[in-house]
Write a structure and sequence with these properties.
Elements: E1 4-8, H1 16-21, E2 32-36, H2 38-41, H3 48-64, E3 72-75, H4 81-90, H5 95-99, H6 102-107, H7 116-130, E4 136-138, H8 144-161, E5 169-171, H9 206-214, H10 232-245, H11 249-256, H12 260-288, H13 290-319
Parallel strand pairs: 1-2, 2-3, 4-5
Helix pairs in contact: 3-12, 4-7, 4-13, 7-8, 9-12, 10-11, 10-12
Bound molecules: adenosine monophosphate and tryptophan (TRP).
The site of adenosine monophosphate has 17 residues, from helix 1.
C-alpha cells in the first residue's frame, strides 16, 4: 500500500466488525497514519470522563496491533491542523452533497436539534485525509459514500487552485467489508446496537465470545453453506471465520458442511478467540503502561503535525490567504 490514513472513533467499544472491516488491513509502515478521531466522536455527545478513557483504550489497541513504530498513531484533537483544514474544506463542500449522505440522513437530517457537527462530519473526515497526501484509506463498506464525497471535494479543490491535494481512494475488503449483527444478520454489526449479544467486543473474555457465537441467530435447515440471501446468519459466521483464519469460505464449508450448526459454531468461536484473545490481553497490558503509551502518542503527534502543517500552509497559499511575513 502507498500512503495510508484511517481513523476510528473512541465511542462505544470496538467489535469484531471493526477489526475485520478496518483494523485487520492496517500495517506498520512509514507514511501510514492511524488516528483516534476524538473530534468525530463529539458528534455522539459522549460523557467527558468516558471519552477520555476510551481515547486511551483505542490508542492502546492500535499499539497492541503493532502500529505506532514506523507508522504514526495519534489523537486527532492534538493536531490542530485538522480543525483548521475543516473550515477551508467546508467552504468547498456543497450542502447538497452533505445532505445526501446516508449517515447524516439516518442520524440528523430534519431534526432541528441535531448538531452542525453531524452535518460537517464528512468534511472533518476529508480534512483528516487530505492533510497527509494519502493514496489509500482502509475502511469498512459503510464509509464508501463518505470516501466518494471526499474524492469529489479533493478534485474540486485541485481544479480550482491547481493540484494542491492527493485524491485518495477507499480500500474496502471484498470479504468482511460488512460484518452483520449476531442477533439480526440482516443488519450490520454496530457499536450503537444496545444488545450486547449482537456483537463480539474486542474486550470480551474467551468464555463470553464462545457464548455469543453459540447464541448467534442462524437459519433454518442444518447444512453449513454460503448463501448470504437464503442463509444470512450462517454466511456471516462463515465469512468471519474465513477472514480471521486466512482460509477461503469454500474450505470452511467443505470442513463443516455436514457436521451440523453446533460443531460449526464451536469452530468459529475457537477461531474468533484465537484472534481476539491475544489482542485483548496485549491491549490491556499496554493500557496499563500509560507512560509508554503517551510516549508513542507524542511521537505520532509530532510527526503528524509536521506533515499536516506543511500541507495546510500549501493549501492556504493556494487559496490566497496571506501567510505570516507576507511570504508568497
Ligand atoms: P467506527 O466504529 O464508526 O469508528 O468505524 C471504524 C471502522 O470500522 C470503519 O472503517 C468502519 O467502516 C468499520 N466498520 C464499522 N462497522 C463495521 C461492520 N459491521 N463491518 C465491517 N466494518 C465495519
Ligand atoms: N468516519 C469513520 C467511521 O465512522 C471514522 C473516520 C474519521 C475515518 N476520519 C477518517 C476513517 C479518515 C478513515 C479515514 O468509521
Amino acid at each position: 500500500m502507498g500512503r495510508v490514513f484511517s481513523g476510528l472513533q473512541p465511542t462505544g467499544e470496538l467489535h469484531i466488525g471493526n477489526y475485520i472491516g478496518a483494523l485487520k488491513q492496517f500495517t506498520d509502515q512509514s507514511g501510514h497514519y492511524y488516528c483516534v478521531v476524538d473530534l468525530h466522536s463529539l458528534t455522539a455527545e459522549p460523557d467527558p470522563a468516558t471519552l477520555h478513557d476510551r481515547t486511551l483504550d483505542l490508542a492502546a489497541l492500535l499499539v497492541a496491533l503493532g502500529l505506532g513504530r514506523k507508522s504514526c498513531v495519534f489523537i486527532q484533537s492534538q493536531v490542530s491542523a485538522h480543525a483548521e483544514m475543516t473550515w477551508l474544506l467546508a467552504c468547498e463542500a456543497r450542502t447538497g452533497e452533505l445532505n445526501r449522505m446516508t449517515q447524516f440522513k439516518s442520524k440528523g437530517r430534519n431534526r432541528p436539534q441535531s448538531s452542525v457537527g453531524l452535518f460537517l462530519y464528512p468534511v472533518l473526515m476529508a480534512a483528516d485525509i487530505l492533510l497527509y497526501d494519502i493514496e489509500e484509506v482502509p475502511v469498512g463498506d459503510d464509509q464508501r459514500q463518505h470516501l466518494e464525497l471526499i474524492r469529489d471535494v479533493a478534485m474540486r479543490l485541485n481544479s480550482r487552485y491547481g493540484d494542491v491535494v492527493s485524491v485518495p481512494k477507499a480500500v474496502i475488503p471484498k470479504l468482511g467489508g460488512r460484518v452483520f449483527s449476531l442477533t439480526d444478520p440482516t443488519q450490520k454489526m454496530s457499536k450503537s446496537d444496545p444488545d450486547p449479544m449482537s456483537k463480539v467486543l474486542l474486550t470480551d473474555s474467551d468464555q463470553l465470545i464462545v457464548k455469543k457465537i453459540k447464541a448467534a441467530v442462524t437459519d433454518s435447515g442444518r447444512e453449513v453453506s454460503h448463501d448470504p440471501k437464503a442463509k444470512p446468519g450462517i454466511s456471516n459466521l462463515l465469512e468471519m471465520a474465513a477472514v480471521l483464519s486466512g482460509e477461503s469460505v469454500a474450505s470452511w464449508v467443505e470442513r463443516y458442511r455436514a457436521s451440523g450448526y453446533g460443531a460449526f459454531k464451536q469452530a468459529v468461536a475457537d477461531q474468533v478467540v484465537a484472534v481476539v484473545g491475544p489482542l485483548r490481553d496485549e491491549a490491556l497490558r499496554i493500557r496499563r503502561d500509560e507512560a509508554e503509551l503517551e510516549r508513542i502518542l507524542a511521537s505520532g503527534r509530532e510527526r503528524a503535525t509536521e506533515q499536516a502543517e506543511r500541507r495546510l500552509v500549501a493549501v492556504k497559499r493556494a487559496i490566497g490567504l496571506h501567510l505570516p511575513g507576507g511570504h508568497p
